[in-house]
Amino acid sequence: MNRFFFVLLFMIVFSSSYGWMGRNITLLQHGERVFETYCSGCHALEYLNLERMQRDLGGPVGHDLSQVSLPKSDAIHWFGRMPPDLSLIARVRGASWLSAYLKGFYADAHRPFGANNTLIPNVAMPNVFAPMTDDVRIGVLRQQDVDAAIHDVVLFLVYVAEPAALERYRMGGFVILWLCFMVLFLRLWIKSHIFKHETVKCGKILTCDP
Ligand code: HEC
Fold first, then answer.
1. Gap between the Cα atoms of 122 and 111, Å rounded
2. How many whole angstroms separate alpha carbon 35 and alpha carbon 71?
3. Where residue 11 falls among pLDDT bands split at 50, 70, 90?
4. How far is the CA of 39 from the centre of ligand 1 (A)?
5. Residue of 43, 143, 50 lying closest to 98 (CA atoms)
6. Residue 201 needs a FRET pair 20 to 30 A away by CA distance; which of 109, 152, 155, 184 works?
């Protein structure tokens, strides 16, 4: 019986760890705000379904994130290239790469925007979190706030790359609970209908054995 409860506990813990994204709507909402404030000036989310995002995350959306107001000619003049669309970047690069990239900016006086990156050497993108890092230095912000902004914007990009995952995680919890219920039910049924007779039969065999 103890073994059974251990498996049940494992399944519940496993199911809740899988629901991490579904339960973190507040983090996703924060990530969306961070994206709007710090990224949407240069990067578009072309494949983002705004209606679906409104339904999933709730609340009004500030402005259309699927388009960017930055003219291509200006972008090429300033950065040498158009900042890439980020709709599917989380699928291409993965969440940990994105997080490492955003944390990998460092001051470099030789670069036009005074910043370089450990993952993309001589990167054309400026360090957009530099004002926040400055605020940490003068004590207006805490380092945790910067880390939370990076974490949540990456979470938001993961959501944008596959919005259906949110629904899957939600359903996954119910499926695991249903499986737990079925395992419990089957165990009780098997115990009362099969194991009972087996014990009797076994008992007979044992007593018959010389
Ligand atoms: C001022 C314009 C600008 C802003 C604001 C900006 N970026 Fe960028 N970003 C760029 C440019 C330009 C590149 C291309 C860099 C290169 O290839 O050297 C880039 C590249 C990237 C890449 C790398 C894509 C790849 O795979 O090569 C990611 C990821 C990214 N940006 C994420 C973000 C996020 C997240 C934010 C907001 C927190 C943001 N960017 C804000 C201009 C910007």
1. 7
2. 19
3. low
4. 8
5. 43
6. 184
Rounded Cα–Cα distance for residues 33 and 156 (Å): 9
Range from 14-18, 115-119, 174-178 carrying the lowest mean pLDDT = 14-18
Q: Which atom of ligand 1 is nearest to the CA of 70?
A: 2
> What is the amino acid identity at position 140?
V
Amino acid at 10: F
144 CA to middle of ligand 1, Å?
22
How many Cβ atoms are within 10 Å of 115's Cβ, its own excluded? 18
- Structure tokens of 132? 């926040």
Q: What distance lies between CA 210 and its chain's CA centroid?
A: 65
Looking at every residue in the chain, the average pLDDT score rounds to 85
Instruction: Give the model's confidence band at 1: pLDDT under 50 very low, under 70 low, under 90 confident, else very high.
Output: low
Nearest CA to ligand 1 atom 41: 39
Q: How many CA atoms lie within 13 A of 25 on its CB side?
A: 13
- Measured by CA distance, the residue closest to atom 5 of ligand 1 is 39
d(CA 89, CA 154): 10
174, 47, 40, 93: CA torsion to nearest 10: 70
Give the Å distances, CA to CA, from 198 to 2, 185, 209.
21, 19, 16
Q: Which atom of ligand 1 is nearest to the CA of 34?
A: 38
